[in-house]
Amino acid sequence: MAEASELTPSVSGMRRQRDLGLSAALQMPELAWILAGFCIYLAAVPLARQTVFPEVSVALFWFPTAIFVGLVARLPIRCLAVLVPTIMLAEFIGTQVFEGVSLRTVWLWVLATTVEVTIVGLMLKFAKANRLLRPYDLLKFAIIVPLGVLVSAAIGGLAVSITFGTDWIAGFRGWWLGDVSGILILAPFILTIRPSKTVSIRRVLEYAALSLFTLGVALWIFSTPSSPADFTLRAALLVPMLGWIAMRFGVAAAAAIAPWVVLIAAIAAANSSGPFAGTSPNAALLVPTQAFLVLTCLTAYAAGTAADAQRSAQQRLYQQATHDELTGLANRRGMLERIAEPPPVWPRRGVPRALLFCDLRGFKQINDTQGHSAGDAALVETARRLRAAIGNQGSAARFGGDEFVVLLEGPDYRGDVEQLANRIVEEIGQPLDPGVLDLRLGIDIGIALEPSNARHSDDLVIQADLALLAAKAADAPSTIYYTDVLEERVRNRAETEELLRKAIENGWVQAWLQPIVSTQTGETIGAEALARIFTSDAEIHEPTDFIEVAEETGLIIDLGAVVLRGSLDWLAEQSQTRPDIQVSVNLSVRELCEANFADRVMAELSRRGIEPSRLILEVTERIMLVPQSPAVDTLESLKSRGVRIAIDDFGTGYSSLAALRQVPADIIKIDKSFVGGMGTSDFDDAIVAAIVHVAHDVGRSVVAEGVETADQARAIASLGAEAIQGFYYGHPAPAELFEFTTHPDMLESQD
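and the corresponding structure tokens:
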């Protein structure tokens, strides 16, 4: 049973409500509560009459009223419009059918009960003592109930005195004592009962066994004759038994069994049976019996609220430890615990699971350009969209940063997994702030399947992470499933990363130089510095072996710094004999986005006394694919200080002309893929000629890469390109082996 705030109907339920012509202020679950309370009240009246002391016409334990008190305290105030008439009708039927009260005085009974229920219920609600979450709440409850019943007891005393011919004081006392004891004992059950999302069969059986045993003990105590001393000892057993139930299972569990124990005792006392045999059920016995029963129950309830409060605090701490504060999703610890707990039937029935590791693309740019508050908002929105995409199919977690994990249990294997992955991609790809800023995120997804890929939860995590690494390495947002081939590739990547780290730490990185030749003079006018790794065992690694991994891991920054320093050291050595020689150094977007990168380059030049114009920094057209990047600004700063800029591999990107317009380039380097086809491909001839023509029209000089034959060299020279680079004029070599030569064939081509 849910508390009032949780009694919110579904959309379909609200529609059914309207279809039935019900008040818009009242919802179907609330009506169900009221109807159930009405039926239970009428059933409880004859049962409660079994606790009436005939001599004084007073109930030891009048609990029907507690049912409606609990409902008034729990349900929203708007329910009073229906609840109050229901209380009046229930009381009218109860007094007429079971009490035989005349129509002349029945209105006093109805009035007293209605006033009592309304006053006590509202007092509990406004005092926030209607949930009994803490011992303090129980204390407020125990104070409010006796005070709240005073007004109704005054009216009820009059009704009792008229109906049964007693004096008003006796009627007042009897009404107050019976209703107070009933509310104090039974109302906590109405106030605290709540649904459980997870039900443990073991705990249910344990609770059932303890409850039945407690009821059995109560029946034994109150059904067998005993001396006062024996009865006291026996009755004392009930306190620890109810207390144990309360501490073990909470106040709701204790409040569910305690009223039955009290009812057994009350019936025995009213009928002078068991330990009460031979006694007269009069006022002298009434008060101490009520006091004992009420104090026994309240003691158990106090233990229950204390235990509940402790468990609630532990749950809050666990919630904090296993959930992400920002998004509300599970965190790394929470999800790993979930993954480590296989479905109850796994692996006996082979229930499949899918684990999706997700990483956002473009998140860093949002943080950098819009601020961390915008980044946090993006993460919160991503979490919301993940929940929407997943629905009730699985659970999501934020592992940290911009990495999320989704666990899918029991899917219809790849069909369901692929649909879910597509929904996630679609949801995340929507604008973050439609109509304001067209900010969008992409997402990479790595997927591992159980049991087809993994038979153990640890393997599932590793494999999904490997798949994500492969997805992140792609140029565009990707969804990749784990395979054995992928594992081998990732293992090689890890080995390459380790090689890179060792090479940078141990000085194995070298700047090898490839000559650049003038088409006008045939002389070497410069060189391009290319990274090589020369290991301790004399093994040489070329950029194709490690550049991609260096970019992915960020090691490209340290690698580039080593190559830049080595290139400038060589250039400084040539300053005395060849003051006009130039060196070209390749840069990544990561390097250009580093804070104060331009200042560091200028400091390196100044330290060696090198003119900035002798340094050429090469970038590819990919720089245009990074929106709102500071890379172009960095290039502008370097160019304004005299450093020359070249666009490398021109023609192979998606934005060649845009790069030509936006990148402050001095030099265009034609990619070797076009140069290699010259003389054999009319298309390549036309492309190269067009690039040279456009470059010259916009004031850029041209260097052709990948020249491997004399015919290619002559063809390039004939088009007017300023310089040539390729194996025809020299392979990359260590700085100490670099040679400056003149190539007469260039001069011949001019003739």
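(Above: one complete record from the training split.) DSSP finds 28 helices and 16 strands in the chain.
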